[in-house]
Amino acid sequence: MHKEGNPLYETPTEIAITAKDSLVHVGSLDSFDITKGGIKAGKLLLSYFENGDKKQLHKAIEIYEKIIPDENFGGEYTALEWICKLLLTPEQERKELLKQPLVNSFYKVLSNNDFADLKQYIQLKYHIVEVDKNDIETKKKLRFLEDFILFNNPDRERWEKTRENMEKFNIQKGERIADVGSGPGYFSFKFADIVGDEGKVYAIETNPMHLDFLRRHIADNDVKNVDVVVSQFEGIGLDKDVRVDTVFICSLYHNVYAAFTDFEREQFVGSIRNALVDGGKLIIVDNDLVDSENLPYHGPYISKALLTSQLYYYGFRLIDDYQFTPQRYVLIYEKTDIPTDTEVIPNSIDDPCNIHVNSAGSLIRYRIIGTSTAGYTIRGKACGRVMYEGFEKNDPALIQKAHDMFEELWPQERIGDDYTAFMWFCEYYLADDATKEKMLSDHRDRMYFDFFGGNDYERLKKYLYIKFYLEHEEDEDANIETSFEYDGKDFKIGTLNEWNEYFVFNNPNRYLWEKTDRMLELFDIKEGDTIADLGCGGGYFTYEFSKLVGDKGKVYATEINKDAMKYLDALKDQYHVKNINTVVTKMDDCKLKENSCDKVFMCSMYHAVYITDIEFVKDRFIASIQKGLKEGGKLIIVDNDVTDRDIPAYYGPGIMPELIISQLSFYGFKLVKKEQLIPQRFVLVFELEEKVKVGESKNGFKMRKDQQPR
Predict the structure, then answer these.
(1) CA-to-CA distance for 439 and 457, rounded, in angstroms?
(2) Which residue in 140, 333, 500, 670 is deepest, having the highest Cβ count within 10 Å?
């Protein structure tokens, strides 16, 4: 590649945003990438397994030949077509093909027990059979099969240009290589063939199912130069005295960037630096953000500039990059000294399309928060245990102690989590009757208390017990944040996650950390206004808006999951709130009537739109907001900032406000106000300058025909 004039090399800490596309995508929460053609071909393959009619295989191949160039790039189609072709191959030719160890292992896994796993994958992938949302084991199995089929696909070369890429890696005989996030070992075993008996490959993985496959393949094929290493989030898992020439990471760093905490990422990258010899190479293969006119990769991606800017601060200098397809790139870094004299350049909301990266922190953080894996610190757990014992024993002294412990702790960690809500319940318990009645004078707060505090605080105690994993004692460092996978033995995990959302977001003490009362003043909501609360959840802001707009106004409370609105529906019905309409929406449509709203509000939601929506889904969603706004209407976004290391972070997702401002500018939205009452949270108010048609942006970027609204 040409390095002269290339900002990746010359100015690695500056990012110019030139289009509406998000800089990083971690995988969709929707199923827009599942198409009619893919479903039809999958059903034909299932039909063959049921009746043995090879005509079904030929029909499936015909479909795959039509759709592979145009959709689902890098997805399962080429692997499933390969299986169809193998099943049609004469027996002798098939035997020759299956002499290749990795190909044979791929076929054995999927054909075992009359193709049971492959059948299950197709049924679940294309929603022919729906998996119970609480069936964690089946979800894990599906995830393994998805990765296995994508990564060990014998026809992977067809879309990835694997051979050309590997030639550029310049791996030499005798080298030692760490394949981090190896999955089922596609590259690990190819590296093993190159480095030979004198070299060594460490296949490093976290998923137990991939680890089992790796070990079986090594044993079945007597592979001598591959060691399997179990990795954890806090590092890649190699022994401290092990040194390698190359660390290889494929289709993983987008998660390291966007889903890891600062602590996890620093431990992870630090362990890479420790493992590499001086001058060693870090090779990253990941998926690129492609122009809308080109065929996008089917899954996650990350901008090369984001990745390179971060690694610069970790002491990795880009020495080469290349790209044989628009969807896939290779970046090669050399381990160097960590820079110590970097200049901090402030970012400006007046020029949000030129972003200066001033640290190794990520510009966006996406953590899926739910009780089953919500995490806790040991200090938080100590508070939770005291509170649980206090309510179990009906002991005011313990409850006062728990309150004081949470009061001291909440400004220091997990801002916006449930610590202040725990304080509220302690305060209620300790209050006199008159104060208790005052605390429940608001309808929303009374319903909140009745839900968690009813029947002698039954749900509150259960929530505490599971939230802080109180059945398990720990002897860990008090500064470590940890998590656990709740096994669902008491009740459904979906129920726990639902409780967590309601407990955190409808917290009557929310104003303590968020300054909610002052924030609401910034919105300039007037009596008689019509406002849409997108992603309303339990209705905390919806209820505030309903009081502000009065009887002549209206609030549209929208949610994708109607179950999330049941608390709001109950409040509305029980207390006869007439100016709230609840609306069930879609990922790509907020379901607002044309020119119906003075204001559209989104709280802790745009980060998800930015990082999880497929581009054309995001286009449609924002177009539906444009449609719903009246002329001169305002789009109000409240979201969580990515804080510096010396400032306690919001406990969940976060996004640099400039990413939102720059992206929305391409959709015709002009920023008119930015306020930040606390470091962890910001308010952005936009005015719609012009309504941009669905399918194109203000600057003329267009969607492909297959991405247009259906």
Answers:
(1) 16
(2) 333
Output the pLDDT for position 485. Answer: 54
> Measured between alpha carbons, how far is residue 504 from residues 369, 534, 651 in Å?
11, 18, 11
Residue 646 has what pLDDT?
A: 85
Look at residue 247 and give its three-state secondary structure: strand
Structure tokens at 584: 């069930």
Q: Coil, strand, or helix at residue 585?
A: coil
Q: Is the pLDDT of residue 694 over 60?
A: no
CA 608, distance to chain mean position in Å, is 8
pLDDT score, position 564: 82
For residue 24, the number of C-alpha atoms closer than 13 Å in the C-beta half-sphere is 26
Tens of pLDDT, residue by residue over 546-590, are 999 999 999 999 999 888 889 999 999 999 999 999 999 999 999
Instruction: Please report where in the chains the tokens 């286009």 appear, as a residue.
Output: 619
Local confidence band at 169 (pLDDT 50, 70, 90 cut-offs): very high
> Rounded CA gap, 204 and 466, in Å?
31
- Residue 323, classed as helix, strand or coil, is strand
The C-alpha angle with vertex 230 and arms to 166 and 309, in degrees rounded to 5, equals: 55
CA-nearest of 14, 17, 324 to 158 is: 324
Instruction: Give the single-character DSSP code of 235.
Output: B
- The DSSP annotation for 25-70 comes to E---SS-TT--HHHHHHHHHHHHHHHH--HHHHHHHHHHHHHHTTT
Task: Look at residues 314, 282, 281, 180 and name the one whose alpha carbon lies nearest to residue 236.
Answer: 180
Q: Which two tokens stand for residue 616?
A: 């054309």
* N residues, the chain: 710
Task: Tell me the three-class secondary structure of 677-691, residue by residue.
Answer: EECCEEEEEEEECCC
- What is the C-alpha to C-alpha distance for residues 665 and 668, in angstroms, rounded to an integer? 5
What average pLDDT does the chain have?
90
Cα(594)–Cα(634) distance, rounded to whole angstroms? 14
- Summarised one tens digit per residue, pLDDT across range 190-210 is 999 999 999 999 999 999 999
Do 580 and 555 meet the contact criterion of CB atoms below 8 Å apart? yes
| Cα(172)–Cα(357) distance, integer angstroms | 35
For residue 344, pLDDT beyond 60: yes
In this prediction, residue 704 has a pLDDT band, given cuts at 50, 70 and 90, of very low
* Residue 474 pLDDT grade (very low, low, confident, very high; cuts 50, 70, 90): low
- What pLDDT does residue 264 have? 87
Residue 140 CA neighbour count, 13 Å, CB half: 11
For 683, half-sphere exposure in the C-beta direction (CA atoms, 13 angstrom radius) is: 20
Angle formed by the axes of helices 208-220 and 136-151, nearest 10°: 50
**What pLDDT does residue 497 have?**
81
Contacts of 189 (CB under 8 A, 6+ apart): 101, 102, 201, 217, 223, 226
Residues whose CB falls within 8 Å of the CB of residue 654, separated by 6 or more in sequence, listed in order: 364, 365, 607, 639, 640, 641, 642, 643, 680
In order of 17, 292, 491, 593, 669, the CA distances from 664 in angstroms are 12, 17, 42, 21, 5
pLDDT tens-digit readout, 425-434? 999 999 999 9
How far CA 355 is from CA of 20, 196, 267, 619, in Å, comes to: 15, 45, 26, 23
Nearest 10 degrees: CA dihedral of 51, 57, 63, 69? Answer: 140
Tokens linked to 264: 């996890």
